[in-house]
Amino acid sequence: MKRSFTIYHSPDADDAFMFYGLVSGAVEHPDYEFKHELSDIESLNHRALRGELEITAVSVHAYGHLQDRYSILSCGASMGESSYGPRLVARPDAKFGSGSNLKIAIPGKYTSAALALQIYCVGQGIKPQIMPIHFDEIISAIQEGQVDAGVIIHEGQLTYEKSGLKLLVDFGAWWWDKTGLPLPLGVNVVRKDIGVEAISAVAQTLRSSIEHSLAHRKEALEYALSYGRGISAEDADQFVGMYVNQRTIDMGEEGRRAIVRFLEEGRRYGLVPPSSGGIEFVE
Q: What is the CATH architecture assignment of 3-80+184-282?
């Protein structure tokens, strides 16, 4: 009998694209079967913090609180690049000053977007009120004046201008200029206690699923579009291309250095707790 695991990930076009190989049945493992459960990334962050999940997507920021219990798979990561990442946006008439009354929405306390914002604000000498809001409510909160600005993730990175908002900071570009590295956003992690053999099987199977999806892009994209929250096929194609690529198959040495640097920056400013050990990556 096959050993069964549930893989938890977010209901987004890029994650759906990655897992198409598994969901379609094209990719299987002889000794393990994998089920899927979908939830927004901040909910998964909190569940991983409680140690509930064996295999899950989490934010890199959250991983800074998890690394004693979980290892990072070298495949399945999502990273911002030199021209894109989570974006800080506001109404066209907004003044982005340094006053303490500035209210900025974030898509969750443990998201990488939140950590990027906080590192940025420390560097700029800005001390805003940070307000966690569900990611798909941030644009409307800005429009309605509930907050002065907000950090948007997922498809909102492509559609915010259609909502009448302006770009203040692209955190992918900001981080690249600061470090010369991609901005690490999301990773897939495995709880260390499931065993070395199982961890290796998970890594092998997820990598095969990503490779299958990229090799069968049209079919995988059609599947992913059902998780695109109403965006056009063109936007879905662009979004998937941004976050599922060669670096997703294997983040490589540059990706690993990016994660280490991001969490080091967070610890430097007291935004990420100290850890008793190093980060464990699974090839």
A: 3-Layer(aba) Sandwich (3.40)
CATH 3.10.20.30 holds for 87-179: no
The pLDDT assigned to 99 comes to 56
CA 88 from centroid of its chain's CA atoms: 16
Tell me the pLDDT band of 233, cut-offs 50, 70 and 90.
confident
For residues 131-139, average pLDDT: 94
Active centre residues (catalytic): 154
The secondary structure of 197-225 as a DSSP string is HHHHHHHHHHHHHHHHHHHTHHHHHHHHH
Strand 70-73 with 281-282, pairing: parallel
The DSSP letter of residue 102 is -
In this chain, the answer to whether the domains covering 3-80+184-282 and 87-179 adopt an identical fold is yes
Distance (Å, whole) CA 127 – CA 102: 8
Q: Which of 148, 153, 79 is nearest to 114 (CA)?
A: 153
Confidence band for 154, pLDDT divided at 50, 70 and 90: confident
Tallying the residues shown for the chain, one arrives at: 283
CA–CA separation, 217 and 211 (whole Å) = 10
Backbone φ and ψ for 81, nearest 5 degrees, come out as -120, -165
Q: Which two tokens stand for residue 259?
A: 């994660």
Domain locations in the chain as residue ranges: 3-80+184-282, 87-179
